[in-house]
Every structure is written in structure tokens, then in C-alpha cells.
Amino acid sequence: MDGPHAVGYARSARGRVGAIARYTALVVAALLFLLPFYLLVRNGLGSDAEITAPDWTFFPTTLHWGNIGELFADPSVPMAHSLLNSGLVSVVQTIGQVALSSMAGYGLARIPFRYSNGVLAAIVATLMIPAAVTFVPTFVVVSSLGWVSTLRGLIVPGLFSGFTAFLFRQYFLSFPKELEEAARVDGLGHWGAYWRIVVPNSTGFIAAIGVITFLGSWNAFLWPLVIGQDSSSWTVQVALSSFMTAQTINLHELFVAAAVSILPLLLVFVFLQRYLVQGVAESGIKG
Amino acid sequence: MRKPNGLSRRGVLAGAAGLVATGALAACGSNTGRGSSGGGSGPTVSQWYHQYGEAGVEQAVKRYAKAYSKANVQVQWTAGDYDTKLATALVGSGGPDVFEQSVAKVDQVRAHQLADLTDVFGSAKDDFTPAVLDAQTVDGRIYGIPQAIDMQMLFYRKSWLAKAGVSAPTTLAELTSAAKKLTNKKVKGLFLGNDGGAGVLGAVPLWSVGQSYLSDDQRKVGFTAAAAAPVFAALRTMYSSGSLLLGAPADWSDPSAFTQGLTAMQWSGLWAVPVVQKALGQDFGVIAWPKGDGSGALSVPIGAYASTVNAKSKHVDAAKAFAKWLWVDKTDYQRDFDLSYGFHIPARTSIAAKADKLSSGAGKDAVDLVQQYGKVQATPGWTSPMNTAYTDALNNIIRKGSNPESELKTAIGKIDKQLSTLYK
Amino acid sequence: MTSRDVADRDTVHGSARDRRRARRHGRQRTWPAFWVFVGPFLAGLILFTFVPIVWSAVLSFFDAHNTVTPTRFVGLANYVDMLTNSDFLASLGTFSVFAVFIVPTTVAISLGLALLVHRLRFARAFFRSVFFLPAACSYVVAALIWKLSIFNGVRFGLANTVLGLFGIDQVPWLSSASPPWYWVALVTLRLWLQVGFYMVLFLAGLQRIPGELYEAAYVDGAKPGWQVFRYITLPQLRATTVAVVLLNLIAAYQAFDEFYNLMSSARGYPPFARPPLVYLYFTALGQGQDFGHGSAGAVILALLIGIVTVLQGKLFGFGRRD
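Above: the input entities. Below: the C-alpha cells describing the complete assembly.
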């Protein structure tokens, strides 16, 4: 449904003026929103002399694509390694979180069990307290497990999201029961119904949750900062943060590193935006 | 001793291990995230350095580590807030075996975080500069092997000062007026770091008015709010007058702001001399921090990062052996480390005597400054919580404009409290 | 977060129905299947959420400097210290100031953008994508751009370059605490990053408003523009708006990334502009290494947010995520 202009006042002269004003405002806003991306490219592909010049250079006279090579060749910046860590962490966390949460959500929504309510209440209780607030206690546990500065320590605590499990439960409650019952008649157990019927028919929802989990995981900072004390376990966010607060900084290299670090997510944006938008609307909290 | 019910560390660990083994998580169980290949046999020893700004240092220390044959040494180069990262790591189980820090703190020794290194020095002990060795000594035991002496000083652009008709400042009043005269639309007069000096100056403002962090016996606060307040008020005035450079991308330890011409004077250190020389040739000079008033002195803070062994390390002996090898035995590496990259003053007098690079030009001026005015910035008794209380007060005075005397009184109160818990 | 009540309500109905059905199917043993599905998740949740909370509650009663297995019981002393600690209270104050800036501006701008984008005939998807695009950036990347390029204090910073065009002197955006210019950087950063996200929520809300409502309004003589917005659009968006405000508040409460990256340097963090998590980070994991006070602080913060969440439910009778 598209709101007021359904009535057709937009064709009047007043409407035309309004439309021009609206597009002007939008274009100005869009330029403001794109400004930081412009800076990322300008500084990332410029030279330090251009970046720090007394007068503003609008764009580098020659694009220094070599900056990218320089970044990956610089032995004091573990860029390739931290990108790899980030990739591993976000992929495993996305798959793991979606798998664990969807199973839990399905169990809670569909499998009758005497203490199901209690389990659900326990999960719902965790929604009251955002995970970030408990990072100190979680660090205490994870460090006692000896998982500081390990990939395990980075990944595993992020696999269990009460919120995602809850979303899946809500979703499965509205999943048409007839489909599953047909499957049960065909002799499939709970697992068969879940795996053969429910999952294949929920790909849109799963993709939406998956995309937004990936986004949150790739961009996460506090937990990787706390746990990644050794530079071999830095994610790309921790690496960027360390180098921007460092004693010595190399401006063009930092900006090109930042630009490289958002490339994977820009790809997600270009190709999976539909799911991302759906994910935001579904969850309304993560990301 | 009280233990929380059913929550002993071991109990939780056992439970956790069970869960992990049975859960779907075992998949990523074996990847520790540590790439462990490299030269050397024997145990793997991890070694942390803070980030040195000068090009080549990182490669050099990795080269030294690789040359060691009795252990597989993994060097970690730590950018960012090194002190905080180190403190966090020392509590957890993933901490470094060998690391550098500039002072062995009393509370670290009390918490048994540092291994006793007294016996690794042997006859070489007398060769180390006593002042920096003292910074590693608590109750007669030595907890760190000094690597290289760093000093801080004020760099100034000779031609710009001449053009503005100001001479190199020797008093705080002169510094303030010079900074003001040197400021114009594109250039600021003075750079003391992005926080206006609150972080880097440390004890220097106190020295400039004849005060210090702690009393000589380390048991009492060494300054009074009334005596110290005027110098901080002067720093605040400078900060708010617009003649300080603030918010530069690179902080005080990096001479970029000075070489890029953003500022006419900058507080930095000896290590920056080669870079400044390359950029500005002979057009710069170095001086000590000026006097605050008649009772004070010209001040040059010195300090030395020292190689320290984590007492909780699984390989304390291997770590000690490595630290001894690199920082006591291998004098050729020490010379390379001190003089081949940025400039540092060798911590050992026998090496310092042969340091040609420090016998002419700005390098010589700096060494002269150290000999005349050099004083060790931090001492073992000055713990992190004390330093935090003090630095917080400086930040509040300089950056927020809070009342100097009452801020300093608050800091003194907190430091007193720390002292009373340390020496009951 | 906004849909807690539904859970409770649905649970009652849902599982009562399930139980009845289970009985009809004749005492099937369903608990093994239940645990296969829910067990792995629940085990992890217990280990990484419940155990930490309990452990932390225990630690908060101990003197736990430099250790997580302390032995000296101190009772409520840590709580008393934290609640009388001016720095901790100041961190709550910092959060409040931040929230006062960020919440109204976010709601206004994201709603404004949603209204503008919603009625577009051309380039609707383009504008939506542009405003949503910053959500792909991490706070770290945004902080890097803000700190080193837009709001650095020197002449080649973008903000200072623009001010320079008007003959205004360089402003030390992030260094200055009086006046606290750093808020400009902190607030604009978060706005840039999150308004597109909330705009998407508002767009979803706008799409759910039935067209007949507008038609009826015009028939009744309502003028397009403010009247329709005031009496139709805004009331219909009430649930979305409440959700956006709450999500925003909770997110601001957890603010860490941009504060840490904009304000800290190689020498640590200044004693101001510390939101609760930053303060906690440096208390428990910084050079203080004080897990007793850190845990007490964490418990206090968790309780505060728990209380707000419960109140939120009571006040807005939640459930509908619109």
C-alpha cells in the first residue's frame, strides 16, 4: 500500500513543488551519507602528502592502487591473518548460531515436553540482559577454560543467542502444521520433519537471520577485543582499532585497510540486501 | 577460606569440558589460533614488545628471536594501548612468557606476577646504568633486564623561532609566550600530545616546581596540591589559549606533526631524532622541559623498557634463559637494537661508551641533557592505580578546566589510600 | 527484546495445546527428541550465559584483584564502593547525556527519512540502499574515518577545513573536554551508522498502515500533510516508535566501540566520556584488574537494564513487534 498519494494530490502544482523539495532533501541527505565512503576511498588511495596537505585535495591525482599491495606486504600489520580470522569467526558463528537456534526453536515450538515452558522461560530471561553487559563475567569463564587468544574463545560464546532461538520459535509457531503432519504420516520423525520439510521451506527466514548474524559477527568489537590479546587471534576490527590508537600510524595504509575490511559486507549488501532488510525487520534488534 | 557453593573453578571446568566434548562444538576444539612454527627447538616461549615507531625494530627483534636455538620464541608486536593489554594478559592464562615494561611495580611483585631475575645478571650487573636498574628493583631483588634507555625532550624548529623572534624557552612563562607567538592560521606553537600533555608529561611538571611523585623512601606522596597547582594551571592556560596542537592523527611519540609542519615545537623523544633529521636537516634543536619556578629545575625524563619474565609462565626457566641470552649475553644484538633504528641510549655503559651516533649533533645534545638533568620517570612504588589517579587529575585540570588544587587533592587522597594498602 | 510477552502468552497456549495433543497421541515419549533439538543450545546457553552471571554474582562479594578465584569475602563492600564511586556514577551520567542526544535525533531523522523514501515513485530502492549502507560499516571503521579524517583537530581534517572556509580557527574536536566537542563526533557517528537501520523498521511500519485509513481520512476532509501525519500516520506507527526508542536506548546503554576508538589513545582512556561498559572494561580488564568491583558493576548494570525491560513491558504492554 502506498499511503497518501494514492489519492492523487501529487499531480497538483503543489504536489510538484513538494516532490522537487523532497528529492532535493533526499539528494543532500544521500551525499552526506556517502561522504564517509568518499573519505575512505580518497584517503585509502591517496598519498600521505595529499591527505595531510594544508589545502584540501578533493581526490588523489593518481589513484595509488599500490597501497593495497603495500598493506598486505607490510609485515607489521597482520592484515591477511586478521581477515582470515574474521572470516572464520563470522562464518562459523553464523552457521552455528542458525543451526543451534533453529533446532532449539523447533524443539520449543513443536515437540511437546513437560518442562518446555521452564526451558523457554529460562531462554526468555536471558533476553533481559544484553550479552555486552556480561562481558566481564563471560571473560572470567572463558579465561578459566584457557580459551583466551584462541579461535574457540572468539567463536563459541557467540554461538548461543537466546534471542535468535526465540525468533526461530516464534517463526516455527506460525509454520503451517499441515505440512509437517503430512510428513509425520509419511513416517518421518521429528528430525525428518525438521530437516526435510521445515528447513527447506524456511530458507528465506533462515537467510534473513543468517545475513544479519554474519553482519553482527563481522563487525563485533568488544568481545574480540577482550579475548584477542595475542595478535595472532585478532579479528580485523581489533587490528584496525589497535593500529589507529598506535604510537605511529600510517594514514593511507589505515584507510585502505578499513576499506578492505568492509568489502565483504558491501558484497552482502549488493547481493543479499533483500534478506538483510527482512532480517532487520524480523529481529529489529541485532546488527 | 570461603568457597562459593559448587562453583569452584575446577568444578566449572569439569562441567564445561563435559559440555564441550558432547556438544556440537568439538569441531573447532583443536585450533588454538596460534601459528607455531619457526626456528628453535624446545618449548615455545612467547615474547611481547610494545610497538616501537621506528622502522625496522620489529624485524630486528624477530630476527634475534629466530637466532635463539634453545626455545621456539614467538614475538608479538603489540600496537595500541600496550599497558592495558599487558595487564589483562598477565591475569589470564594466555599471557606472554617474556615481555617488556618500563618499571617493575610493587603491586605486581606482591601479586607474584614477575619472576625474580636477580641471578641472571652475574658479573654484568655493574655494567647496567644504576638509575634504570633501580626501576626494576623491589626489596633488593631485580625483576627486569633494562634494554635501552629512552629520554624525552622538546624539539623546536630553529628557523621558525628565529623568524618569530623568540629564543628557546627555559621557563614555563617563556614556553607559554613562545607557543602563542609561533601560532598562526596553519601552524600551532606547541604539541604535547593530543591530550595536551596530560598523558605524557607525567612527573615532569612536578619536577619543574621541585616536587616529585613519591617521597624518596616511596612510602609517602611526594607533592602537595598547593605547590603543584600553579604549574598545572599554566598548562591549562596554554591548552585553552589555542596555541597547542590537539587532535593530530599521530600522537606525541611520532614526530609526524613536527615534520609535517603542523607545529613549531613538539615534545617527543630521542628515538625520533633520525626521522626529524631526515625531514628537516639541521633546522631543529632539542631542549629540556623548562623550569616552572625558582624552586624547580630543567627536566629530562628517562626510562628504560626492561625484559621481564611472567612468573605464571609454564616455561619460567626457558623464558629466563632466553631473556638472559638476549639482554645480558648478546651485546652485539643490544647495540643493534639501540642504535640501528631509532636512537636509544644503551642501558649498558660499555656499549654506550662506543655509541658513535650519539657523539655528534642532536644525538649528542640529547645525551648531554640526560647527563645534566636526566631523572627516572617512574619508580617501582608508583603503581598503576596511583598513576591512573594522577593522570585523571591532570586530564581533568588540563582538558576540562577543573580546579587544579581540588583535583590534585583528590588524587593525593587516592594515592594515599593505595599506599596504605601496600604498606600496612 | 520487544516481544517478550508474546512468548509468555504463546507458551501457555502453545504448550497446553501440545500437551493435550500428546495425550491424544497416547503417551508418546517425546523428551528424547526434545533434548536432541534443544539440548546442545541450552548447554551452551547455560555455560556462556548462566554460569558467567552466577560466577560474577559470586565474585562481586569477594576481593578479586588480579584473580578470578578469590578467597577474601568482603560482603557488600564492592557494591557500596561502586554505588558511591563517583566515576561509576559519572559513567551512568555519560550514558544519560548520550541517550538524551541520540534517541530523539535518531527517531526524528530515521522517521523523516522513512517518510521521504516511502512516498517516492522513482529511485526509492536507491535512496533506501544509500541510507541503509552505513549499517555495513563497523563502529571501528566509522570511528577511524571520524577520528582521523573528519574530526581530527588539525588543519587537514574535513570539519576544520570546512570551518576554515568561514575563517573559523581549528577546533580540537576529540581532545577538548570543555566545551565537550567530542559529543559532536560521538553523536554524528552513531547517527550515521544507525539511522538507516531504524529507517528500515519505520518503512516496515509504514507499509503496514492500511491505505483505507488514509482514504477514509480524505473523505472526512482531512488535509494531506500535517493533519494526516498527526492523526493517521503517527498513531499507527506508535508501536514501531516505541520499539525504536527502546532498541535505541538499550543500544546506547551498551555503547562501547565508538567511545573506545574515538577517545582512547596509546596511553589509555581519559577520565571523562566513559559510558558504563568502557568504565567496566578498564576497571575489570584494564590495569586495575579488579574483578570484584568489575563484577559488582556488571551486576548493577544488568539489574538496571532488567528493571527497565520489565517496566517497559508493564508500560507499553509489549508483545507486538508492531
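Note for the figure: The first helix of chain C runs from residue 4 to 24.
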